[in-house]
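Troubleshooting: if your tokenizer reports a length mismatch, compare against these two reference records.
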Amino acid sequence: MSKSNLKVYALRLRPNQDLNQELDNFVKQNGLKSAFIMTCVGSLTKATVRMAFGGQEENEVKVYQEHMEIVSLVGTLSCIGGHHLHISLSTKNGQVLGGHVFGEMNVFTTAEIVIGECEDLAFKREFDPASGFDELVVCPRN
């Protein structure tokens, strides 16, 4: 277990901004090396998500184009190797859907996001043969 000081950032995205791209820009502009989503509320008109899979199945990517509320956004962010985010969305009928943030996420009215960063740590991603994916590695910050 690692212990670290915490720094907090807050930002608001506006209509038609791409949540995924804006988070990537924010992390790079601020040099964040070990950030994570603390909370996010807002709405989208488009969401591109990768669905969970098992065994040797292909990753299925779904694109939703409708007004949806952001119920939850969780995950890690880093300018070293990228981010890993999952999202839950609610449709106008109250159906909840979600998956791995994979592409375009167009803001409808707003996205209010609070980001934390562990100041003494760095997150990076390395290939893990057990999972077959680039997975989180937590390191002391140099």
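Reference record two:
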Amino acid sequence: MDRYERIIALHRILQAARYPVTVPRLQDELGCSRATVYRDLAFLRDALMAPVVGDGEAGFRYDPQQGDRFELPGLWLNSEELHALLAAQQLLSRSGGGVLSGALAPLQQRIEKLLDEHATGKRWPVERVRVIPHRLRRMDEASFRIVCSAVLERRQLAFEYRARSTGEKTRRTVSPQRITHYRDNWYLDAWDHEREALRSFSVDRIGNARMLDTPARDIDEATLNEHLSGSYGIFSGAPRGWATIVFNERAARWVADEHWHSQQQGRHLGDGRYELKVPYSNARELLMDVLHYGSDAEIVEPPSLREQARSLLQLALANYDR
């Protein structure tokens, strides 16, 4: 335990203590020598102005009249929090000279300053933390900022949208509800005023975005979650049914620990295989994820989904028969 962690731990022990805490107990809980306990108590009292009272024989505690109101000044981080901050710093710096880099530059600078303050003269080996984007799509930074502003300022949004599945280009006027980061890409959940329904839009397909003066229509959180989170993946809509997928023993070691859906049901079968059940509406994304496992996965139910998987596999096989 380094000094920062000891000071945090000492502060929490004294703040929670109803009676004086003896030096031997502090030694035991902090894992340090008697002299170190006294040095840390002195630093807490004299440098940080903590209301430490007591002596070496009776023990130490915070003054009951002031202890509840005292907090450590500034930002104090233990090693786990510091490492999480370090990972966040790397995520900001390496996730892409892209959309967020300019807007979040001040935040990154503050994180780096905090890391320097807590490094106590050491250089953190930040190059040993890796963040690797996967299938990240290019996005127009101006459109992304307008979309985010409309979400936060609760104003309607007009834009051109080119559907990836058909290539069709349409004009949309929507009330943005929330911005979603999913699989390294951004999506806008919104109420489409022309279609009078909730829709999800891939932000990288949005162009010529314009924030309107008209206030956005707010959809309650329960309705949003029911419509946009009820089924598997990013595709919206109430579940049409449940898919049952069985993974062989080799794939089961991974799938049993994976989160596919908030309502998923999974169980180990007696022969080492793993059965996973998930609700779905649009089969496209679910099929892609199941077929990613190749021969290690089999869709058992429903028959219609199983037949779709069979057709896709036959089409894929045909590519290799030429």
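Descriptive notes for reference record two:
- The two ends are 64 Å apart (CA to CA).
- The first strand starts at residue 52 and ends at 55.
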